[in-house]
Design a protein that fits this description.
alpha+beta, 10% strand, 22 helices, binds adenosine-5'-triphosphate, two-stranded antiparallel sheet, binds magnesium ion, eight-stranded mixed sheet, 12 strands
Length: 447
């Protein structure tokens, strides 16, 4: 029997003691045990117990019914943390995600239904005993990811496990066991039943990880999952940009170069070149001042985000960043060019465009560039001068036009847009007097 100390928060021991004191066997399981065995200090400790949900609710003062039908009760610890306590379960019938579960009598049954050996290790907080019938601790030491039981069966039961396998392998840098890999690859084109939400959640978990997401994303590609779920990205694999670089590799390195808490930025980094393979002449400049591939990429990225049922806000931001990443006014650009650029990119987004651009530079050149730093400095200086970037920022509006005797009508909008053009070129013009004077001049010209 293996005895170890995994040093859980004191509340884990207290909760286990209360349950065991009432006669219910109780163990820590899942991710926390795995991560503690790896020497980390996990935050979320989940417990599994012989006690039924009603027993758990009776034994603790402050509980939250998180998923009673699945046997999960949240116990609020004195440390303010919510600990999930779940009754031993077994799968009675598995059908995709709609697995029907029943309560089980033993820990071993509960461990049996878990996906990978490294996730199927239990630890008793009171005795320190490690219960590991599938050899998960050893797999963790050897750096191997394996399903519990027959991989083909386990993947057929729940295709989400294909994505989970890749994510755990990437995150912990594990080798996927041969049989598990073979059946995983065979499952790659059978992910059709997975809901958009699950696929998106998995992608967000991959991109939200502190380890380089490229490790998992490379496995997505090698396994065929990328082709099945993200054909737009698969099209980038093996496709070269103007300087001969592989688009997929550039996107992977870009994601790695973005801090993990910036999810939208990481999505934009992953997708910023998707328009390239879809464009005949990728660097042809479009009207709105961005290259064709970037404009097309924005549209493709937006569709991909919507397919994943990502929020409108996330989809719009990612699409905008993808469309705008390609053009940054250089350090020597005239201020008026910077103001035009800011009008296009928006005050809410220009910092993200600069961050994305920095990550792309690091991906391509191995480090940030002095030129980009200076460009950013110049842009910030222009922003600090609070330039008018929309008609709302003009020193006059409809009321002032009316007061100056300009006949009201649709002309107002046009006049204000023309004024914004003038003010973009020459910010000093943005005073009521000067703007009215300009309008009156225009009126005279017209008469
Ligand atoms: P993370 O750090 O990503 O939360 P985790 O191992 O805690 O990792 P969860 O998704 O929180 O993962 O699930 C908790 C545990 O439940 C897993 O460790 C595993 O034992 C089990 N589990 C979760 N999803 C599945 C699944 N689809 N099939 C089988 N077992 C699963
Ligand atoms: Mg977890």
């Amino acid at each position: 029997m293996d005895i170890v100390d995994l040093r859980p928060p004191p509340e884990v021991r207290r909760i286990a003691r209360r349950l065991e004191g009432a006669g219910f066997e109780t163990w820590a399981v899942g991710g926390a045990v795995r991560d503690a065995l790896r020497g980390e200090a996990p935050e979320d400790w989940d417990l599994t117990t012989a006690a039924r949900p009603a027993d758990v609710r009776r034994l603790f003062k402050r509980t939250v019914p998180i998923g009673i039908e699945h046997g999960t009760v949240g116990v609020l610890g004195k440390d303010g943390h919510l600990y999930e306590v779940t009754t031993f379960r077994r799968d009675v019938e598995t059908f995709g995600r709609r697995a029907r579960v029943a309560f089980a009598d033993s820990l071993d049954e509960d461990l049996e239904r878990r996906d990978f050996t490294i996730n199927a290790v239990a630890w008793n907080p009171l005795s320190g005993e490690l219960r590991d019938p599938h050899g998960g601790a050893e797999d963790l030491r050897r750096g191997v990811l394996r399903t519990v039981g027959d991989p083909a069966e386990r993947f057929a039961e729940d295709r989400l496990r294909v994505l989970r396998a890749l994510r755990f392998a990437g995150r912990f840098d594990l080798e996927i066991d041969e049989a598990t890999w073979r059946d995983l690859v065979a499952s790659a084109d059978r992910l059709g039943n997975l809901s958009a939400e699950r696929i998106r959640e998995e992608l967000y978990k991959v991109l939200g990880g502190q380890e380089p997401p490229s490790r998992t994303l490379r496995l997505y590609e090698r396994s065929g999952v990328l082709a099945a779920l993200y054909p737009e990205l698969q099209a980038c694999v093996g496709c070269k940009d103007a300087s001969g670089r592989d688009l997929w590799e550039v996107q992977l390195s870009t994601v790695d170069a973005i801090p993990y808490h910036r999810m939208v930025l990481r999505l934009a980094g992953l997708l910023h070149l998707v328009g390239w393979p879809a464009t005949d002449d990728p660097s042809e400049v479009e009207q709105e001042g961005v290259p064709a591939y970037a404009a097309v990429g924005g549209t493709i990225a937006w569709r991909l985000m919507r397919r994943l049922k990502a929020s409108n806000a996330d989809s719009d931001r990612v699409a905008h960043l993808v469309a705008q990443h390609a053009v940054i006014p250089g350090p020597d650009a005239p201020d008026v060019d910077v103001r035009r650029w800011l009008r296009r990119v928006g005050l809410d987004h220009y910092r993200d465009v600069l961050r994305l651009r920095r990550a792309i530079t690091i991906a391509r050149e191995g480090e940030g560039s002095e030129e980009l730093l200076q460009a950013a400095r110049h842009i910030r200086a222009v922003v600090r001068a609070r330039p008018a970037l929309s008609v709302q920022d003009l020193a006059i509006g409809g009321n002032e036009l009316r007061a100056a005797g300009i006949p009201a009508g649709p002309l107002y909008g046009e006049i204000l847009r023309d004024l914004l053009e003038r003010v973009t070129e020459e910010p000093a013009l943005n005073t009521p007097e000067r703007l009215i004077a300009i309008v009156q001049e225009w009126q005279q010209d017209r008469e």
